[in-house]
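Input protein
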Amino acid sequence: MEIKRLHFDTYLTAIKNSVGTKTFQTFWAEVDGKRTDITGEGDKSCALFVSAILHWFFWISRPHVTVKSTIKDMLENGWEKIDDLREGAVLHWEEAKRGDDINEHVGFYIGNDEAISNSSDAKTPIRHHITYGTNPDGTPVRKVIGIYWNKKLEE
């Protein structure tokens, strides 16, 4: 019997099956001697979600809790910024103000102008439009500022 692993298909399925999971909701750290969930019970878990999936497939060095460290690790492991959307690509959204914080955001492109990323409101990954829709003036609610691809996704 010959078995050929289909990494890309498994990767996309893992992303799609993550919708609604609480798996990426919490990351404990000791902050000033106190045990703290530094992702705010899923409020700031987008980088953990993306980096955990990428690390699971050995496409980055380790899971992260910030967008900057996730993208830095991606670039150090062969990820490149590309111009066109490709199913399975990692998306990076512009900074947006939420409450008192201004945060970047990352997620995955799954085709048909849809993405899956962690929702601060749901505190779990959700499926949504790649720009979260449009404003009344026709501009994106949240602009994609980076599309990242790794040739390992083609193997």
Q: What stands out?
A: The chain has one domain: 40-154.
